[in-house]
Structures are given as C-alpha cells and as structure tokens.
Amino acid sequence: MIRVLLWIQETWAAAARSSWMATATALAVTTGLWVAGKGAGVSSADLWPWRAAVQLSGLWAFTLFCMAAVAVGRSQAMEPVFGGFDRATRFHRIVGPAAFLFTIAHVVLMVGQALHQGQTVASVLNPLAPQARTIDIVATLLIGGLVALAFSRLRHESWLALHRPIAVLFLVAAVNFTIFESGTPQGFEPLRTWMILLMLASAVALLYRVFLFKRFGDRYDYLVEAVVPRTDDTLDLVMRPVTMRMMYEPGTFAFIRVPGSDRHAGELHPFSISSTPVDRDLRMSIKKVGDFTRSLTTLRAGARVDVYGPFGGFTPHRFAHYRRLVFIGAGIGITPFLGMLAFEQTNRDFRRIWLYYVVRDRDHAPYDEEIRASYLKADSFIDYELWETASRRRLTAEKVMEAVAPLDNCAVMLCGKPEFVSDLTRQFHQRGVPLERIISEELSF
Amino acid sequence: MNVTTEQVGTISVVRVSGQLDSSTADAFSSRMIELAKAPTTRLVLDLEQVAYVSSAGLRVVLALFKQLKANGGALVLAAVHPRVQDILEIAGFTAILPVAPTTDAAIASLSQTR
Fold first, then answer.
1. Does A317 touch chain B (CB under 8 A)?
2. Is 0.90 exceeded by the ipTM?
3. Which among A345, A352, A376 has CB closest to B90?
4. Residue A83, SS3?
5. Distance between CA A211 and CA A306 in Å, rounded?
6. Residue A146: which H helix or E strand, with range?
7. Which end of chain B is more exposed for a tag (fewer CB within 10 A), N or C?
8. CB contact under 8 A, A382 and B55
C-alpha cells in the first residue's frame, strides 16, 4: 500500500512539473468552456453524433497547436515551464503532430457530418462552394499540403522553414472561426476570450522566434579561436568572447550563427557546450552530420560567431538534491558531460558520480583521453568507464546497476540519440528508477 | 593542511587540519605512505579539523586503508566532521571504512583488535 502511495506521489510530482499538466489543463479549459457554451444554449441543437465531435476536434487541434507554438518560442522565460528548451522541443515534436492529427480528424468528421446530412463532400472541401468557410478550408488544405511536403526529404533548414507558414495558416484559420464565423467560439464570450488568449500567446511566440529572437535574444559576440578536428566526423569549435562572456551552467547548450558564412549566414544551430564556465573560451564539440556542421571545418581563426543562449535544463545543478549521479553519454552525447567534468574540478561540490562513455570502439572515443586526464582531479568521487559496444555489446541498465546498486537516491542523466535515450530510460524505469530521476537530452534538434 | 602524528602505545594517531583536496592530497599521501610501510601499523585518522574532503583526498584515504590492511594493519577514522561524514556517506565509504565518534573510541577499538 505504501509503495502504491509513493508511486502515486512520485508520478503526480513528475506530472505536476511537466508541460503535460499545462497541456491537459489547457485542453480541459477549452472543453469545459465549450460544454458551458452549450449549456448556455449557444448552437446547442443537433450536437450528436457529428457536430460535437467536429467542434471539439477543431478546438482541441487549435489548443494543441498553441501549446506546441509556445513551447518552441525560444524564450528563456518559458524554459522552466517545459524543463528546458530541449524538453520543450521534444514536447513540440509530440504535440505539433497531435494538433495536425486532430485537424485531420476535424476534416474527416466534417465530411462525415456532411454525408450524414445528405450533402456532398465538395460542400465541405470546396472553398468556392456556396456558404463554404472559404478561409478555413483554404488554410486547412494548405496546411495539409505543407505537412505532406515536410515529410519529404528536405534539408533541415527547409524543414524548419516550413513550420512558419503552417503556423501562420493555423492562426489565420483560428482568427477566422473565432472572430468572423458564427458558432460556439463567437457566440460564447468566455470561450472566445480563452481562444483569443491562446492565439495571442502562440502569435507572440511565433513572432519572437521568427523575427525578434535574432535581434533581441541574449546574444554574445565571439570570435573563432580554433577549429580542432577530433575524428573524421567530430570537431571542437573553440571561441573567444569579443566583449562579454556568456555565463552558463555546465551541460547547457547554445545556438550559433556564422554571419560570414556564404550559405548559412542566417541559420541558427544548437550545440552542446563542452567547456566549463570557469574558462574564458567557449568550446562546442560538434558531430559533422549536415551541410552547416561540415562547413564549420572551413572557419578560420578570427571568424565572427554569434552565440545565443544558454538554453536547456540538462545540468546537475538543476537537480542539486541528488548527490549520487549516473552519467551516460553515447557518442557525441558525451559532450555536455565534458563541461560538467571540467567544472567538477573547481566547484567544491561533492557528489558520487559514475560516468559511462558509450562508443563503438576506442577509435570512436575522441574524448576518452580528456576524461581520463581529468576525472581523478574532480572534487566529486567519479568512477569512469569507457564502454565499447563492439566488444561488450550494448550498455544496459542492468549492467549499470551491477556497479551502482542500489540505485536508491541516484539520478540518471542520459545523452545521446533519441532511440538510445528512450531505450535506457525505459530500462531504468522498469528497474524502479522514477521518471523524475531520469534526466535526458536527445541530440536530434 | 597541517598533519601531526602522535604515538599512543602501539597505535599511531594522525591529526589532520585544513582541507583534504587535490591541492593537498599528494603531500598527505606521501606522509601516510611512510607510516603505512611498517607492517601491522594501526592508525587512527582524526578528521575533526577537516571540513572538506574531495575525491582526491578520499582516494588517498582509501589507498591508505587498503595498504594497511594488506600489511596486516588497520585504520579507523575518528571524530569525523559532520560535512565530511556526509561526503563519506554519499561516496558509500561508511560501508568500507570504520568510523569512530572520538579519537579515544578509535584507539579503544584498535586496542581490541590486537
């Protein structure tokens, strides 16, 4: 019984801190206000089986879209709500498609409703049909087309750029049916006000991200000090501040822009910081996976780099109450731990740490030497293990627990590819580690 | 860091004051290695005046414990500062290293081992 109560308490605590609770609340408010509107007699005739489903699917799609937009507004003020920008991005990747699926459901249900009423499909999908909601239909069709395009093989930047028109179309449709079209939102003031608030929040997030972030975001001017190749596909970008240094927590990340780049001057790309905040120079350890990262090898010393940040909640100080930590970094996922390890030499904050660097083999472990040279100098007591999957197969939670057990009062920090992170998260959770003590960062945005 | 050594019968009492971290661990280690060389050395490490021990200090203490044990000797930590006690517990060292509340208690426990 006590175990069940503890489980409920931990689950509730985790949920309460997460953006999912905010999303559930937003959906509940939307639904509640819709029900209240019907109770007040606003367009309450013939609700079942089609109209209620049509209206609710549309309202839920809109609510989820707003939450997804706010999540990736790149506002540092919103980071605590989402537990860091990396988590906000993961949240966006789930909620954004969910909003689109509800949009599809909305359209399908509208078609069903039309057929049920003896009308044609064209009466719902043809924007030029008599009494058609032209703006909503055009916006929805365009959204569908753009999302389909997004699923084709696009450059990362093009894929990102597609999000903007999709967001604008969502807002256009929302403004239209909230303000201009007759129906529950327009007829019931509390729901209309709520939707306008959601719209404003997402519009502000969109505006800030697209137009204002580059100008008004926390930006620091740096110059390239060196580009150090570590392996064929990994490099260190070392930068020196021109004036003011960016202050950051070890384990966080920042966006960089290279204004002098021929092809990528306007692009912002996020990378984990692998230096310690004690150092003057800022170091990012980067895997060459695309055009932009490959172009970094051509940067010369003295080239200007704009650094925006810091972002992210993947830092042990955010979880200061955990004194026993397991760090697991796979491949380039070791990057945030390098900064933490360097910081450990000066922070006079004692913890017990088990650090695993998971690589295919020693040839793919460019930071092994650096770690070995520093972990014994740390204030914290650190055990370090280079885990070579070629000879030892995959690292599992069971293997970690053999070294660390018991895992009581331990927090686990994971960084690597999404599949690696989700697999180990599941394994640790199955072995009794509460989700709130599993802190992860995925390297995929 | 300051280290003083006192002989109480056949037991060596080492009193340490200051901080046992990466800047002092090497010097401390050198002193302790000399003491631990003799066979069957029984040693009390009084940490009342040590408010901070880093991993470097812990590794020296652990190495000392292992060396003494290998030579047939023994080590007891005594009067450990509460902050250092926390560190020992976080590191899981309280399960390995014997800790006595006072130097006298440590001497008494080592006297019984002979």
1. no
2. no
3. A352
4. coil
5. 16
6. helix A134-150
7. C
8. yes
